């Protein structure tokens, strides 16, 4: 039997209970969430908004809330705590070097999950993405990780659409995409060693991603598109390559056995 901590944080407890309700009992309206938790509607609304922000929940068309990506998607096999502790110092060095927000993410099914973010100090900057999930085929880090998969592995992950002679992938996030185009794009990413996400996941945000060796992880830089310049790309890629190499080296030395 587990006893409630003597110094429990009520708001955290409410958020965790609400996440469990969404995961196990299905969609809820704000009024239903408030009733289940025994809180005011305004409190329930704030809790749900935070769960949506961290991808623990999504709002449906009928104004109900249901379990989001963090609660529904498969998780990566690497211990996130180890990846985080190893990566953070190197991400901080990366931020100091280029002056933009840095992230580390892992592949989780068709999505990438942000394990940690280190924000830069600029007033206009990309914020903390920790805990968020994005479609892997759109995110820069997701693209470099997908580029390491074989054609058969990609078919198994996304599923070729037989109705169109196996030439499209069915995606949960929207319209099916052309299988051959994806393979061609990933082949180019595999060759060049990095990927660019230019406003594919969020208008006004550009990101550059680089895989961390053979580990199921990638590092990325995210910056406002207004500050992104093509001539700066080689410098960003080199900084990412150095950070990724140092993270991989430290993991290898530590003997964590996190290779995919």
UniProtKB/TrEMBL annotation:
GO terms for biological process: negative regulation of DNA-templated transcription. The lineage of its organism: Bacteria, Bacillati, Actinomycetota, Actinomycetes, Pseudonocardiales. Keywords: DNA-binding, Transcription, Transcription regulation. Residues 9-69 form the HTH iclR-type domain. The keyword 4Fe-4S does not apply. InterPro entries: GAF-like_dom_sf, HTH_MetabolicPath_Reg, Tscrpt_reg_IclR_C, Tscrpt_reg_IclR_N, WH-like_DNA-bd_sf, WH_DNA-bd_sf. It comes from Amycolatopsis echigonensis. It holds the Pfam family IclR_C. Residues 69-253 form the IclR-ED domain. This is IclR family transcriptional regulator. GO terms for molecular function: DNA binding; DNA-binding transcription factor activity.
